[in-house]
Amino acid sequence: LSRLDLSPEESTYYTRIAHQARRRKEWLTWHVMIRELVGPGIKTTYEASGCPVLVGDPGFISVSHSGDYVVLYYQAERCGLDIEDCGRAFDRVASRFIAPEEWQLLGKERDDRFMALIWCTKEADYKYAGIRGLDFLKGIRVTAIDSREGTLTVCLDGQHRMTLRYGFIKGHCLVYTL
Length: 178
Prior knowledge:
It contains four helices and nine strands, in the order H-H-E-E-E-E-E-H-H-E-E-E-E.
């Protein structure tokens, strides 16, 4: 906190999460990261969709955290990323975000890494789209997975096709838009 000069809006947001030690630490971490990357004067706010945005900088950011990891994506174009622990209990909610056609992509039975991959892909696309309430089951569809290249093809809201890259790092899945 001592490394940051927070705007009034950032201070208000920080105060709201101050009783949640882990979330506060994650929030502070990515704010230190963005200031080191872009510059000490950079400030942030949030879109109506909940995605963080930079104030006074034409770049775009996407942020995610899982366990001890905080990841930040900064580039000139809109972007999205997600990181998740592959051991998370996705199987309890898989029917709400994995369509029957998506299960067929690997030709395997349910597997934690596959569920984490699909979840991260849809979360990264959701952040990229910035559309509040976009349905993970119907609005974002994984149509192809290339495990040699580490890429996925996704159809977003029935119209926009895009490619994302993925990898597995120390029991976590990381997916980001290209």
